[in-house]
Structure of Polyketide cyclase/dehydrase/lipid transport protein:
Amino acid sequence: MLFFDTEYLIRRPLTDVFSCLSDFQRYLMQLPEFYGAHLTTDDSSIAPGKVYWISVPEADYAYRTRLELIEVCSPERLVYDYQYTALENDTPLSAKEGPMPWDRARVALTCSACEEGTRVSAQMWVFGVQGFLARWKVNALKTTSARAQKSANDNMVRVIENLLDDSAADR
């Protein structure tokens, strides 16, 4: 099920934006929704198959997030899956066991240069949707998703522009 399909503008060059978006250690942990979380990965290059683990140290979180790169086509396209797993092992959690009403999600980011900077198209599909979300009316789902995604997009644009400004100042 397509959960959201949105676009946003980042007023920076395409290669800089893609470099930032594809570097989860640099970018992802700066987003407000990930404050306090820990990101770990191996030293392999940013390529399909690379796995990141996101964990939250608070006792209320009985899971961690496994994020795997599926497609990396620099500087135009980045696709990744994420899924919640048990803390003590890599066993995927079902929608009934995890924090979200789906088993797995896939995010595709497509970047294109434009006069103002870089246009990013973001789509997210969710798989194994169960419970309330599966029964929710499509219009209500789209409206709620659009509101939540607008806030996430605003945060994403602000964080990336700030990170790229800081990188330019460091040079």
User: Anything to note?
Assistant: The beta strands are 2-10, 38-41, 51-55, 63-73, 77-86, 104-114, 117-127. Helices lie at 14-21, 24-27, 132-135, 138-170.
